[in-house]
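Hi Y.,

Following your request, here is the sequence exactly as I used it, all 434 residues.
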Amino acid sequence: MAKKKKTWFGVKIPIALFFIGILMPPEMSLTVGGLRFSGYRVVLIILFLPSLYTLLVGKHAKFGVFDGLVLGHSLWATLALIKWGGLAQGIESGGIYVIEFAGAYLLGRLYIRSYEDFAAFARAYVGVVLGMLIFTIPESLTEIHILRDSFSAVLGGPGAPYIDKRMGIERAFGPFDHPILYGVFSASAFSMAYYVVAGRDFKNKRGMVKTIGVMVATFLSGSGGPYVVLAAQIFVAAWERVLKGVTGRWRMLFGLFGLTYFWIDLMSNRTPFHVFVTYLTFSPQSAYNRINIWNYGTAEVARHPIFGIGLGDWVRPVWMSDSMDNFWLLIAVRYGLPAWFMLVALLLGLMIVIGMKKKLPQEWINARHAWAFTLFGISVAACTVHLWNSLFVLFMFLIGSGVWMADTKPGKAKKTGDDQTPTAKQKKPRHTLF
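Below is the corresponding structure, written out as tokens. Let me know if you'd prefer a different format.
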């Protein structure tokens, strides 16, 4: 009989430690020699070499093309940083980037290897988001940042910065650096709650209440980026539900996106990008700033297409902030187009390979939707926000958490938690893509 692996909160211990690190407020970070050691970063540093060795020797998972893209991107980004700051500075900056980028991916890649692992993670993730409501609902109503201010009072530090209210509520930080981080962290649990915890079943009242709770948590951030993450997931979930069983429904959706893009391009005196940004942000000022970021950022990529500019400053008007609120653009600006292409190939390649899997148990299909729709929502929002600190490592972890669906075959699925979906023997719908 196989020895049962130890877990914390239902998930494997390395994953539990990683999420505990993510939930540590920035006041608990320690800066040594110019490097910031946050909770999640310490966990990734400790686990990086053992995880890399485990992957390379094929102990738990066979090394594949997607792993090669992760390591290739990491190497290219390091070279870009060496070109920018010299060997010593480049290795220092590149080293921490590799640990966060590849380390977080490897954590999801190696410690989520089955539907049961993924379902346990999804339930724990949703539980964390709901648990934080104990702090963030009062935070939004009282203007007291309970977690940040409490840790600041004990450990020192400035505490949560002042940010203007939106829609009459104080924007909740939770334990994160910014309300955007709290909001995206919460919104990213929506598909996990709907597809895995609730099993896509409206009659599962307990699961649906948890799904609504995730939406409430997202709302408390008062941030456009998280709302986009949530709205994108709701849209594709509704599309999947309405057109379930229709062959080619995802090709139809991609075609609809393409037609919409060309229609806006023909009918508007602005580019489709300008139109989308205008409607995906809270104010005309935010939209104008993001349009300028796009214009000056793409010009920087054109000047430095191979290795980017590293952590150097980018050319822009003196009145513009140095903050680049576009994750995808920032990757190209800093590390060059090869690094950008490898990251995009990793994400799209995994979605295509996993999406083409056929004759899967219903539990796997739900897990596939939860994983793909979560990453879709984050990726869309990343066009208007930067994924930094805990949000960046969460994004990479989520990418890695779905690789098991690409390189393993379904076993006999088990019902766990609130998941009341039918088993493979009860239902095997035909699917061509998701």
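The beta strands are 7-8, 11-12, 30-32, 35-37.

Thanks again,
Q.
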